[in-house]
Amino acid sequence: MEQNVTILDVARLAGVSKSTVSRYLNGGYVSVEKAEQVRRAIDETGFRSNFFARRLKTKTSQLIGIVLPRMDSVSVGRLLAGVGSVLDPAGYQGILLVSQLDPQKEIEHIESLCQQGVDGILVDSVAITDAHVALAQNARIPILFTGQSRAEVHCLKIDDAAAGYMMGTYLRQMGHRRAVFVGVTDADHAVGVERRQGFENGFCTERRSHVDFVETGFDFLSAYQSAGKACAFHPTVLVCATDGIALGVLRYLHECAIRVPEEISVVGFGGYDVGAVVYPALTTIAFDYERLGKEAAEELLARIAHRAPAFAWDPFDTGRSMRFVERESVRALGTGGRHLRRLR
After folding, report:
1. What is the pLDDT of residue 336?
2. Burial (0-12, 13-18, 19+ Cβ within 10 Å), 30
3. Which has the higher per-residue pLDDT, 243 or 34?
C-alpha cells in the first residue's frame, strides 16, 4: 500500500478532510484530536515517507514561506488576501511566520523556511539589512521582499516618498504652514524615512513652512500617548504616518475636547475602512496592498518557474498603487486652501 497511498487515502482512514491532512503535513493548524487521527493514519500507511520522497523526486514542495511583521494590521491582511488569490489557484500553500517587527527574527524565519524546503519566500519586511541581503543572495530559492527596498535584492513596494509628497502638497495648498509629523523610527526606512521626507519636500516649499517630528509606535496606544507632545508644538495639522496612528491621535483630541478640523486638522496614510466611519472622516492616501500582494505572489511564482513575470511592477505608477481620499478632517486655511482636484 505504501507505493500507492495518497492524501485522500490518509484522509479517509483518519476520517478527516484532505485539507486537514494537507495542513497537518505543512505545519498548519489542526486540532489535537484530528492531528492524532492523521498521525495514526500516516503511520499505518507509510505515507509520510512517500510524501517527502515525492518532494525529493520533483524538487518542489508547492509551499511558499511568508514572513509577516505582525498580524494585527489592516495592511498585512490586505496583502495576504492578494497573495492568497494567486497561490491558491496555482496549487501552492503558504507557511506563515511572524517577526513581531524584529529584523533579526525575520532573518531567523527566512533561514528556517529555507531549511524546511519551501519553493520560495515572500518577506513583508520591516528592514532589509546587510544580513538580509547576504541571505537572499546566497539562497537557492527565490526570496522577494515587500514593504522595504534595496537595490541588491528583489523587491516590490509602494512609493512612500511619492505618497508623502502628495500629502505635503495637498496640505500646503490648503493653506497649512505648521505641521507635526507623528511617525515611527527611522529603522523602518519606508515609513519612517521615505514617507516623512516626501511629505517635507511637498510641504516645505516656503520659508514660513515648518514641520516638527514626534516619534511613536504603530499601535493605537503609542499614538494616543504621543498626541499630547505633538499638540504642544501648536501646529495647524497633525500628519500621522499611518491611519492606525491617526486613530490614536483622534481619540486623544476627542478626550481633550479639541475640535477636528475646526481647531486642528488630522491626516493619515493607508486608506483603512475605519477611516471612513470615524468622526470626522479621515483624509488619507489609500494604498492598494491587495494588488501589491497579488503581484508580489505572481512575480515570486514566475521566479520559481524561471520565467519572466507577466507584468512589470512600477512603484512610480502612483495612479495604480495609491489614491488620495479627501474627507472631513482637514480645514482649508485662508486664501491658500484649494481643492484636491488640482493635484490629480
Report:
1. 41
2. buried
3. 243
